[in-house]
Amino acid sequence: MVVGVLALQGSFNEHIAALKRLGVKGVEVRKPEQLQNVSSLIIPGGESTTMAKLAELHNLFPALREFVQLGKPVWGTCAGLIFLANKATGQKTGGQELIGGLDCTVHRNFFGSQIQSFETELPIPQIVAKEGGPPSFRAVFIRAPAILDVGPDVEVLADIPLSAVENINSNNAIQKEEESSESEKKVIVAVKQGNLLATAFHPELTADTRWHSYFLKMVPEIGEGTSAIISTPTTDQSFIERSIIDFPIYQ
Ligand SMILES: NC(=O)CC[C@H](N)C(=O)O
């Protein structure tokens, strides 16, 4: 069993490493025909405009859309979430091509620029936490998008109160879509719609493999029957101690 990881740009190596920690082989996908050798796909974080240009160059969009429409499991993290959205705002001039399929509107850089990147603890959704582990997970947001609205078939898995983000970025210049006086206003940062999973944060940059485990359970040939690979989060201290500054700066 292999899981495809779109390897045009961004954190594809980190996803492959996370899969390896669960005993699953991740294979790099760069060409349309390579999608025929995988039954599921992870689209990593990175820079969605660059990734879209590379995907166009390799004529990947038709094959990626077909992959999604065939109902195969696809997980988009960060830039990958933008790729999967039906609609994106805050795009560069001229916009960018999207795969689409996920009935939502995403704001590309909702939380601000690179220096407003942050980490926070979020409650782990029930369906992801089935195997146990701590009640929260470390959510790493790097120049992150957020989901502004979702269609009726989209299940919201995680959201974040804007007040928490403002506390984290004490000198913040967060560009909010709309100012709100309600301190409990939240934005959506993780969703599921049928075969599609999307997260605005980067589980592949943490030691916690529960999001990867959850995605693997969406893959029919792994499915619910393979709890053996669903282990408790890695406690490899050297990995845990890495902070987001150890990871590449996305332009
Ligand atoms: N870490 C990320 O993937 C950042 C995504 C970035 N906001 C974009 O537009 O592509």
Automatic annotation (TrEMBL):
GO cellular component: cytosol; glutaminase complex
Superkingdom to which the source organism belongs: Eukaryota
Record-linked InterPro entries: Class_I_gatase-like, PdxT/SNO, PdxT/SNO_CS
CDD domains in the record: GATase1_PB
UniProt record, GO biological process: pyridoxal phosphate biosynthetic process; pyridoxine metabolic process
Catalytic activity: L-glutamine + H2O = L-glutamate + NH4(+)
UniProt similarity note: Belongs to the glutaminase PdxT/SNO family.
Protein name: glutaminase
Gene label: LOC104216665
